[in-house]
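Thread amino acids onto this structure.
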């Protein structure tokens, strides 16, 4: 747990939020199928999302692995909407290859777009990958009172997105999503 969240826990001011985590990876899905934990699918990014969420004092409602298939991705988002999760994070399939359909599948569902997430994520990613940041269409939005983030599949991208943006802003965003 970070020192900030440890302090908040001690003071009783940290709210615990629930996260629904979805890894979108055709290669892992074709090798391992619909597993229920990242460990079962050699899913380093899924495992990292899980660790970062729980070490911040929050909980994981559910983890899913789906392939780059629009109807399966939307199915996952619909299940997340029916769950008690406050926040949904998808990882993978945000790129520009024809198989990358996460943004096409999820962003049109948003009630409200959060453009600042993608802008800040790409700005911060310049330090990691330079001008290749243009390859990621990372996005976020509000949908039916939940906050949804779509981040790239690489573990470096997941770490940056969760540690630097998503986890520090969760309380603030969830509050607005519910209003
Ligand atoms: N879930 C993941 N866990 C660990 N590394 C990942 C994961 N997804 C992607 N990566 C890594 O991020 C980089 C970019 O991945 P890419 O967008 O090509 O996804 P991919 O793993 O090929 O996805 P797919 O399984 O859909 O083909 C690669 O180095 C890949 O190994
Ligand atoms: N911060 C950060 N952003 C990143 C990356 C990364 O390693 N770190 N990988 C890039 C790469 S290689 C690709 S192809 C795109 C899209 O990745 P995805 O298709 O796995 O979502 O995200 C990009 N954004």
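Threaded sequence (179 positions):
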């Amino acid at each position: 747990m970070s020192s900030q969240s440890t302090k908040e826990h001690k003071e009783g001011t940290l709210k615990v939020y629930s996260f629904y985590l979805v890894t979108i990876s055709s290669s892992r899905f074709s090798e391992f199928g619909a597993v229920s934990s990242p460990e079962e699918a050699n899913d380093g990014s899924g495992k990292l999302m899980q660790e970062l969420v729980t070490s911040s004092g929050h909980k994981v409602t559910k983890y899913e692995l789906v392939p780059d298939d629009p109807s399966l991705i939307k199915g996952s988002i619909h299940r997340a909407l029916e769950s008690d999760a406050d926040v949904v994070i998808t990882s993978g399939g945000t790129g520009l290859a024809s198989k990358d359909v996460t943004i096409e599948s999820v962003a049109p569902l948003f009630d409200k777009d959060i453009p600042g997430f993608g802008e800040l994520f790409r700005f911060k990613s310049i330090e990691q990958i330079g001008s290749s940041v243009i390859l990621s269409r990372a996005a976020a939005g509000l949908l039916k009172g939940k906050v949804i983030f779509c981040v790239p599949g690489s573990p470096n991208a997941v770490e940056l997105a969760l540690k630097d943006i998503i986890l520090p802003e969760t309380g603030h965003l969830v509050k607005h999503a519910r209003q």
